[in-house]
Amino acid sequence: MAEEKGPTAPPGLKIVVVGPTQGGKTTVSNYIASDEAVDFEYPFEYNATVGVRILECERNLGGPATPVEVWDVGGSTDYEGCWPAIMHDAHGVVLVYNPEQEGQVSESGAWYEYFVQNNDLPDEACVVFAFAPNAQRGTRQRVSPKIEHLNVVNISLDDGSLVKTQFERFLKAAKARKDSGGGGGEAKGAEYK
Ligand SMILES: Nc1nc2c(ncn2[C@@H]2O[C@H](COP(=O)(O)OP(=O)(O)OP(=O)(O)O)[C@@H](O)[C@H]2O)c(=O)[nH]1
Ligand SMILES: [Mg+2]
């Protein structure tokens, strides 16, 4: 029989993937939530995400496997009304934009302000993937001055494994923050002893 539990924090991590429309959020989300050593897809068909999709996976971050929810948010501002609910209890934000699209470079700053700063998340709770699908490795990509102090990782379609490594490192840090009772999620502003 299930043991009755006290009001403890849920065991998992909630990660919200945001950024301008067609920046590559769904592409990156599918990749980071997959358990297979898949690579980014060829050929590619774009379908706008309506509202939000939630992908569930488990990751070994030390100790028992950690359940991870990846919330892939549609980039259209039509769903803006849902954003506060989407951000509720989030432990981290993955910001994805296409650095070869001028509009997306400046928009990425606004996404950071809304989803990270306005939610009182620390900058460490945000990783940025600048996704230029067909860029040559080593190409210097454009970054908005508002987010250049963050961990900005340049990726192309050849960089699937780099995304996985960076995401795992990001999750480990998010788990450490959560376990120590700080930096977002249900632990925000609370003191756990
Ligand atoms: N996986 C993949 N992505 C590509 C390819 N070619 C282009 N892309 C990029 O992927 C982008 C859109 O993909 P999505 O991941 O669906 O974009 P999104 O950010 O989820 O878009 P919304 O859901 O509308 O907010 C395209 O606009 C291209 O920049 C390709 O061959 N494979
Ligand atoms: Mg999408």
Question: What can you see in these coordinates?
Answer:
This protein has 193 residues and is of the alpha/beta class. The chain has a single domain (16-159), classed as 3-Layer(aba) Sandwich (Rossmann fold), CATH 3.40.50.300. Helices cover 25% and strands 20% of the residues. It is built from four helices and six strands; from the N terminus they run βαββαβαββα. The protein has a six-stranded mixed beta sheet, with helices on both faces. The chain is globular, with a radius of gyration of 17 Å. The structure holds guanosine-5'-triphosphate (GTP) and magnesium ion. Guanosine-5'-triphosphate binds at residues 21-27, 40-42, 44, 46, 48-49, 74-75, 98, 133, 157. Residues 21-27, 40-42, 44, 46, 48-49, 74-75, 98, 133, 157 line the site of guanosine-5'-triphosphate (GTP).
Summed up:
With 193 residues, this protein is α/β, with parallel strands linked by helices. It contains four helices and six strands, in the order E-H-E-E-H-E-H-E-E-H.
Largest sheet, in brief, is: 6 strands, mixed
Quote the distance from N terminus to C terminus.
28 Å
| Low-confidence sequence ranges | 185-193
- Mean pLDDT across residues: 89
Envelope shape: globular
Distinct ligands: guanosine-5'-triphosphate, magnesium ion
Helix content: 10-25%
Q: Rg to the nearest angstrom?
A: 17 Å
Element-by-element helix/strand order: EHEEHEHEEH
Which secondary-structure class do the elements indicate? alpha/beta
